[in-house]
Amino acid sequence: MTTKKDIRKHFLELRLNMDDNTALDLNGRLLNRCRQLDYSRFRMAHVFLPISEKKEADTWPLVKWLRDEYPGLQWALSRSDMKTGDMIHYLWKTNTILIKNQFGIPEPEHGEEVQPADIDLIFVPLLAFDRKGQRVGYGKGMYDRFLQQCPTAYTVGLSLFEPVPAIQDVDPWDIPLQTVVTPDHIYQFK
């Protein structure tokens, strides 16, 4: 299990077969680890909202905690264009209306557009990662294109599982993460 396809299949099955109590425990421990990072230098954070049907890492409690602890931190959310693979980013205010797209991703209905260069902290979704910070997502490449647009942003992957030793088929355009937080560890790669 070292190719993206095999890793993707394995970890998606692990997540989907996880019972609710295990998911709650892992997400609670993930939040506690995330609280150990220092967010004071950041101005605008981009976050993914979880696809609950796919049991993604639950970012809602993290956002609530960060909004309480760092009230000056602004937030951005994306809308995904599945045809082009582009992500358009919007300022996420407390009154922003969210709607689920056809894939179950909560997205802003509309709002004030944010340029990628204005984002300095990005919480990145993933299915799995390796010991070099490479990640496996759903395979559309949307986050790699997004990360290329903001090369100075600090990236934090959120994983419910520990790393695989290595991903064999890393592509030249894949962008490794700087940090990955799991329920039990914080991995620093750069």
Give the structure's gist in a few sentences:
With 190 residues, this protein is α/β, with parallel strands linked by helices. The protein has 4 helices and 12 strands. The two termini are 26 Å apart.
Structural features, described:
This protein is α/β, with parallel strands linked by helices and 190 residues long. It is built from four helices and twelve strands; from the N terminus they run H-H-E-H-E-E-E-E-E-E-E-E-H-E-E-E. It has helices spanning 4-16, 20-34, 60-69, 142-149, and strands spanning 44-46, 74-81, 86-91, 98-100, 106-108, 113-114, 121-124, 128-129, 135-136, 154-158, 179-181, 186-188. It is globular.
The helix content is 10-25%
What number is the mean pLDDT?
94
Distance between the termini: 26 Å
**Sheet bearing the most strands, described?**
8 strands, mixed
| Structural class by secondary-structure content | alpha/beta
Identify the strand order in the major beta sheet.
6-3-2-1-7-10-11-12
Global Rg? 16 Å
Strand content: 15-25%
Number of strands: 12
Question: Please, how many helices?
Answer: 4
Helices and strands, with pairings:
Layout: H1 4-16, H2 20-34, E1 44-46, H3 60-69, E2 74-81, E3 86-91, E4 98-100, E5 106-108, E6 113-114, E7 121-124, E8 128-129, E9 135-136, H4 142-149, E10 154-158, E11 179-181, E12 186-188
Parallel strand pairs: 1-2, 1-7, 7-10, 10-11
Antiparallel strand pairs: 2-3, 3-6, 4-5, 8-9, 11-12
List keywords for this structure.
alpha/beta, 190 residues, eight-stranded mixed β-sheet, single chain, two-stranded antiparallel sheet, globular, 4 helices
